[in-house]
Every structure is written in structure tokens, then in C-alpha cells.
Amino acid sequence: MLRRVRAGHLVRVAGAALAIAVLPVLCRAQAAPEQRSAAAETGQRGVFLVFPFENAGADARLDWLGEGLEELTIQRLSAAGQQVFTHEVRAAELERYGLPSSARLSRASMLHLAEDLDADYIFFGSFASDGKNLTVEGRLLRVSPAALFPAVRESGTLDALMELHTRAVWRLLSSSDPGFPLQFREFSRLQRPLRLDAFEHYIRGRLAAEDEGRVRELREAVRLEPDWPDPAFALGQASFGRRDCTTAISWFSRVPKAHDRYLEAVFSTGVCQLWLNQPERAERQFLLLQDLLKNSASGDLPEILNNLAVARMRSGKTDVAQADLVRAAELDPDDDDYPFNLGLLALRANDFPGAAAHFREAVGREPDDDEARALLIYALERGGQKAEADAERAASLSGGEPLPAVRPETLPRLDRVKTELDTTALRQEIETADAAAPAAPASVRAAGPKMTSGPAGHLRAGRQQLSAGHLPEAEREFRAALAADPHDAGAHRGLAEIARRQGRLEDAAAEYRAALESHDSATVRTTLARIYLEQKKPELARQELEKALKLAPNYAEAKQLLQRLDAGKPGAGR
Question: Taking the model in full, what pTM does it have?
């Protein structure tokens, strides 16, 4: 193990765990005044995407440092008030392309990924050790227009890793931006003091393939740094994955409000309480989340609304549960869980025609949802629509597999709980949350990152409005971005999503094609293929999927959709 070293001072101030700064004031309000002041001076440079550092040496025992330096870089940038995507967001994007989070990418591939995520800067690097000394090299790549800044290198003993990495990050920020206002001493003071051996255990725990090894490493990190919330949160996630809810809730309770994983900890705690059939406690957790997000541009999140509705449904609060689910379905019209839960709610009220309508909608969105189809048949039968029920049953039997049996006593256990908080809608949350809270102290309000001007500012504002369901406002922002830059692929994608939500499929397809003219993307081609399938244009869909797989041969979503298309399954476009 590496020996204990010092690393800087104080805590993170930006909400990197929710992709980029979510509710920055919530996090910064807990910081010391001198920390808030220093963070306020850093201004806004853009959004960073960090990749693992490459082990350029011969010592494979230090391979853990690849993701370790990625995580440290995220911490350093976040603590200095910069906006940065988390490891989880990068890994999830790679997973969409069928690649492991540890995959080594060329600079061109890094740029492609950054463009899809709308990052402004890429941070990557390498390290090497001779067994006693360590050299860390950092590189910064601007996405648009593409420009690679000169590398910076720092060397020192292995146990000085924290200090030399902090200096490397500071040098790269200050050398690439002549206006960067923080001196190294100020930059260092913003960093959390952290034992290097505890950090090593934490990273090894995250990398562990087996649950037992993961828990052992993370517990050792907690023992060495009992006030560090990151390993506690990771232990909560591990217990959550095993549905060991009592243990998970205990670990999540150690994540403070100022921490950047707090919202996820609250969400997972609420899910656990639903699993434990504690609807009143779960309702309080999801109401707390809504309260925390009430001033954010993202507005309501459908996952939170769904789980809040489930908690209220179990408590007999039918009317408010229904309103929550209707709102969730409006915000995420492609998800079949929301009409499914609405169908269950209607069944409990003996509204069989209403239940049948909701289950039919769920089946339309996901034709392979046998449970929804079985409940549709059940609702039709209970509503006296025997002919329609028989037709649905005959259609289902043609698939070869019998539908699951539906019994009235099982209905209360069928509601669908969202187990993950989708941070996509939050990752462009870069406006200060205190815009609607003028009572906050000026020193706190000043600490919030400012919206960039020009096309990027309009683009991010448009995404915020879109995620909040404010389509006219979002369209105005996207069109403003295109007025400044007619080739902005992100703005075209935003307009396409608005058109798709409004049922204007031809307009949506045209906007996606315009986006592809500016920036080719497997994700956009796959989405365009779905639209073509909705328009009953399977050959055009096939062409787009084949092009997507040429760009990203392991892209799971495109492969699955093409397989469905090849199999001729009905409703493959959903």
C-alpha cells in the first residue's frame, strides 16, 4: 500500500456526480466562506470530460492509478468550480457503444465521444513509475474548434502522488487559460485532504470484479477516512445492488447534503423504502428530492414522479398518484412503465376501460411486455369486452410463449419502481439554482457557474427547457443557437426531439438528418432509424442502423434494433 500523504484542503463544491453541477448552491452553501470566494473567481471555462490515464510504465501493480487519476482529476476540477462529467457518465456512454469503461481510445474517438456528450474540453494523460518515483503527464484537448494544448509533467516520489497530481492539473488549467485566476496555493486549498492509502482502497474497490472484494476494499477506505463520503456511498450502492436495504440505507445516511452524490443517495433510499414496503417513508424521500430540485431548470424528473406515485398509491392517495404518473408520462413519452402503473391504478379503482386503455398504450410502446399484455386481456375481460380479450389472447399465442397468469391478489405487488435516477436530464444543469432564490447570501450566489454566451449558452438553455418539458421555450433557444451557428448539430438534435414529442415525425427526421450533416453519430442514426420504423419505412431504418454499426460496431442498441428488424417482429420501432 502507498503511505499517507496530504492533498490540499476542504471539500468539493460542484455537483459532478450528477454529471455536471446540479444545484451548485446546495453544495457550496456548506463550504467555508474563503472556499466559496475562491470558487467564485474561477468563472466558467466549459464542461470537462476526463478519461483514465494510461500506464506508460512496466509496473502492472499500478494499473489502478489509471482510473484513480481520472477520479482525482474530476475531484480537482470540481473542487475548483469547474463543471465536469463523472466517471459514471463516461462509462455509461461507452457502454452504449458496447465498450468497457477501461477501453483505450484514440484522440479521434475521445473527440467523438465528447461531441456526443457536448463536452467542451477533454482531459487525459499518462503516468509511469520506476518503483520509487512517479511521473504524471496531463493533456487538455479543446473539442471545438479542436486544439491540443501543450502537455504538462510533474514528477516526484510515489507517496507524493496527491501533491504532484494537484500541481499538474493546476498547471494545465492555468497554462491553457491565461485568465485563470487561482494561484496554486488557492487551488490547493480548495481540495479535500485525503489519505493516499484510503484513496487506493477506494479505487481498488470500485474496480473489483467480485462483490466480496469490493466491499472489503471500500470498508478499509472508510476505516482510514471515516469522514470521506465517497466510499460510504459506494458501499451503499453495493448493498443496494444486493437489495440489502437495511445496510444500504445505513451507508446512504452517511452522505451529507453538501456532497455531490446526495441526490442519488436520497433517491436510492426512497427505492429501498419502497422495497421494504414503507410507502410513507418513501414518499418523504421523493418529496425531499422534489423540494431540492424545485429551483432547478430541470423541473420534475419522471423517475421521481413515478416512485412518488407508487408510494402514494400504496398509501391510498389515488388522486395525487394519478397526477404524478400523468406528469411522468408527459415528460418521458417513450417509457412504458408510466402507463403500466396508470393501468394498475385504474384496476384498483375498478375502472376497467381506463385500465385497458393504459395497458394498450404500454403494449404499444413495448410490444414484448408480456406482463402488460396479460393485464390488458385481464382488464378487457373484467370490463366485459370478451371479443377484444380473445383477439389479444390469440395474438399473444402466435408468439409461442404463454402469458403470465393474472390473479387479483397479485395486483398490489406489480407496480413498477424506477431504481435508477437518470442523470441525462441533469447533466446540462449549469445555471445557478439560486436564480429563483434571491434570499441566498451574495457570496453563495456568486459561487455558481455562469451560463456561457453564444450558441453554447442557447444550446444548454434549450436542453434545460426541454428536460423540464417546456417545449416552446426550448425551441426558441435551439433556434437562437442555429441563428448563431447554422451547423450546430446539438441544436438540430434538440429541435428533432421537440418535433418527435409533438408527433411531427417528418420534421424530426429532417432535423436529425441535418444534425448528421454536421456531425456523424451512431446514436443519432439509431434514433433516426426508430423514427423511420414509426413511419413504416423499414429499409431506410435498416440503412441508418447499418451506418450506425459501421461507426460503432459494438453499439448494443443499434444491434438489438437491427436484430428485431431482421426478425420482422411487430412494433420493432418502439
Answer: 0.76
